[in-house]
UniProtKB/TrEMBL annotation:
Record-linked InterPro entries: Acyl_transf_3_dom
Residues in Acyltransferase domain copies: 25-365
Gene Ontology molecular function terms on file: O-acetyltransferase activity
Protein name per Swiss-Prot or TrEMBL: Peptidoglycan/LPS O-acetylase OafA/YrhL
Organism the protein comes from: Kutzneria buriramensis
Keyword set includes Cell inner membrane: no
One cellular component (GO) term of this entry: plasma membrane
Pfam families named in the record: Acyl_transf_3
Record GO biological process: enterobacterial common antigen biosynthetic process
Length: 397
């Protein structure tokens, strides 16, 4: 699959590829996003809930969900936009690569919860609670991403078919999706919860963060960007100034809104609600800015360069790091607290130390797993095998 030459008005070098159908800019965006989501979790657990500065940073870092889901839609459509999609094969492969790790890691983190919190639950209640964690995506605080991804995989063949049948109406679809996203965010943020939490609507409301429709705009935007890849790439290249200005202004608005929430008596944690409609402009411009950054980086890379190989390797391991890093963070905060004097239990020092520990130990774990037979079931990646040693060539004498 080749990338078309950009129009004369945008004579920037097109982003390079590492292989057929592979976009190098996606590798960098994925790595930066996973690095950011680790920081989100570290800041949350290493800072006091009343720390206005830390949670202000956290409010901006919540863009990670939007970028995650934009990339999910983008990569899938880019892969299948010009070739047929066999739904059965697609579902089997995706459910295996994401569904199996999802169940395994949910059970693993559920085990941590059991060990620390309620070690003596009856078996029936234990299994019921575990099933609830699996189907609600609440086994641990980061596993919602896998559950939402699985929901989108189920819908994807239908989404792709609709996109192919409505090519002339894609702008209208995107605008409609944006309006719907604002409406969903307004409802989730400002409408009162249903009176019966056990009703279907009550369950949907309670678990809004693990439902695919809560992120439909960014998934669809990624799909449409990939469907019109050449036009999207040209637009990104020629509108860099607009993107950077939008990023700056939307960040100022997001922080101002955070300050308004604080001024009205909200705790810093409550003031950083991920699904607030006021944060949508910031999320949208971060998606564009991240992709622009990745594109500019990829355009400067020579095929097979060291930086390209490092980023590609990091991207390949990023999903595994995402899955295991909360466990490493938990270990650090619960087993190595003696490293920190009592008078500085939280703050910048602890945040940086916890981040470094979580990243390094997670990478070590993934590097071991990705070279083992468990690679697919634990981190959803193909096993990396050692290259066979070359057979010595006999020398005639």
């Amino acid at each position: 699959m080749s990338v078309q030459v950009l129009p004369a008005a945008t004579q920037a070098k097109a982003p390079g590829k590492a292989g057929k159908g592979h976009l190098n800019q996606v590798d960098l965006v994925r790595v930066l996003t996973f690095a950011s989501v680790i920081m989100v979790h570290v800041i949350t657990y290493t800072n006091d809930g009343a720390n206005v500065t830390a949670y202000g940073v956290l409010a901006l870092l919540h863009y990670t969900r939007s970028v995650f889901f934009f990339l999910t839609g983008f990569v899938l459509v880019y892969t299948y936009r010009k070739r047929p999609l066999a739904s059965g094969t697609f579902w089997r492969r995706r459910m295996a690569l994401v569904g199996i790790p999802y169940v395994i890691w949910t059970a693993f983190y559920f085990g941590i919860i059991q060990q620390v919190g309620q070690p003596d639950l009856p078996v029936a209640q234990f299994l019921d609670y575990l099933w609830g964690c699996i189907y609600k995506g609440v086994g641990w605080y980061h596993l919602y991403f896998l559950l939402v991804s699985l929901q989108f995989y189920i819908l994807f063949p239908f989404v792709l078919a609709v996109l192919k049948a409505t090519v002339r109406h894609h702008k209208k679809i995107l605008i409609g999706s944006a309006i719907l996203q604002v409406g969903i965010s307004l409802a989730e943020t400002y409408l009162p919860a249903p009176s019966d939490p056990d009703s279907t609507l009550g369950q949907l409301w309670t678990n809004d963060g693990t439902i695919v429709f809560s992120y439909q705009f960014f998934l669809l935007a990624g799909c449409l960007a990939a469907f019109h890849y050449e036009a999207f790439q040209a637009w990104i290249t020629s509108h860099a100034k607009l993107i950077w200005w939008g990023l700056g202004l939307s960040s100022a608005f997001a922080l101002t809104w955070y300050g308004v929430n604080i001024a009205y008596g909200h705790a810093p944690g409550d003031a950083t609600g991920v699904l607030q409609p006021e944060m949508l402009p910031w999320y949208a411009f971060v998606v564009l800015a991240m992709y622009l950054t990745g594109s500019r980086w990829a355009a400067r890379q020579e095929t097979g360069s060291r930086s390209q190989r490092i980023v590609a390797a990091a991207s390949q391991r990023s999903f595994g790091v995402f899955l295991v890093h909360p466990a490493m963070l938990w270990v650090f905060l619960n087993k190595f607290d003696m490293w920190f004097p009592n008078h500085i239990p939280q703050g910048l020092y602890l945040t940086l130390a916890a981040y470094a520990f979580a990243v390094v130990t997670s990478l070590i774990f993934v590097e071991i797993v990705i070279r083992s037979p468990l690679a697919k079931v634990l981190i959803g990646r193909e096993r990396i095998r050692r290259a066979p040693k070359p057979t010595p060539v006999p020398v005639a004498v």
